[in-house]
Write a structure and sequence with these properties.
- Keywords: Signal.
- The protein is mainly alpha-helical.
- The protein contains ten helices and no strands.
- Helix 2 crosses helix 6 and helix 8 crosses helix 10.
- The protein starts with a helix and ends in an 8-residue tail after the last helix.
Length: 152
């Protein structure tokens, strides 16, 4: 009975992402990475208010520029760090030296873009309306959708 339940969960999980590589440009077409990312725990961190301190901390963390995150980042956060690296947030941190005194970078746009990307990649499209992310989702689609007429 338990084996059947586990098998059913695996089939349903894989079915949700089976055509993922037809929709998004790399690296968002990596089914294993996206499957690891799209958990309820990660959704709560990215989308909910209680996850804000964690997100703002991750946005500024040096791990976004590390190649071998598995060695240094706790396994439960590896998918989130991979996701933020894939969005190019290391480059943002390099361009904006947030450690300089007197420099303040508001990360609201970055947070909203992250939420929209998460909602699209993880197929949580109800969150786009719930959190008013439609403009950010449109921008993400222009940048990362495999076939997009706005990107020519």
């Amino acid at each position: 009975m338990i084996v059947l339940l586990i098998w059913l969960l695996i089939v349903v999980r894989l079915r949700c992402f089976c055509d993922l590589n037809d929709e998004w440009l790399p690296p968002f077409d990596d089914i294993s990475e996206v499957t690891a990312l799209c958990t309820k725990e990660n959704r709560n961190i990215v989308m909910l208010r209680r996850g804000l301190p964690m997100m703002y901390s991750l946005f500024r963390h040096d791990a976004l520029c590390w190649l071998e995150i598995q060695r240094y980042v706790p396994p439960r956060y590896n998918p989130l760090v991979w996701f933020l690296q894939s969005l190019g947030y290391c480059d943002i941190n390099r361009a904006i030296n947030w450690r300089r005194r007197g420099v303040e970078y508001k990360r609201d746009f970055q947070l909203m873009m992250t939420r929209a990307a998460f909602a699209l990649i993880c197929r949580q499209t109800d969150d786009i309306g719930r959190y008013q992310l439609s403009r950010y989702a449109a921008l993400f689609r222009i940048m990362f959708e495999k076939i997009n007429g706005d990107r020519m």
